[in-house]
Design goal:
84 residues, 0% strand, 3 helices, mainly alpha
Length: 84
């Protein structure tokens, strides 16, 4: 039964992280297109702050939606480890 918790933990972590991974992948894809279109721009100078802002905004947007999956995962863990 513990291996099932590990499987559910991994699947839940993937679903929790998926929106942020998608947003950061899209930001990096857009920066890659910008670096190909305008090669004279220093992409390292603007890429880090843009990625940082996208990451912080993404966390601020997705954090309120994570209470339900996190609570469901905690309930499953308590059930497996013998809580009341």
């Amino acid at each position: 039964k513990l291996y099932r918790l590990g499987t559910e933990l991994f699947a839940s972590a993937l679903w929790i992280a998926l929106p942020m991974v998608g947003m950061l992948m899209f930001a990096n894809l857009a920066l890659g297109v910008i670096s190909r279109v305008a090669p004279q721009m220093n992409i390292f100078a603007i890429g880090f702050p843009i990625t940082l802002v996208v990451g912080l905004v993404g966390i601020a947007v997705t954090l309120p939606m994570l209470d339900q999956p996190f609570m469901a995962l905690m309930e499953k863990a308590i059930e497996v480890f013998g809580g009341a």
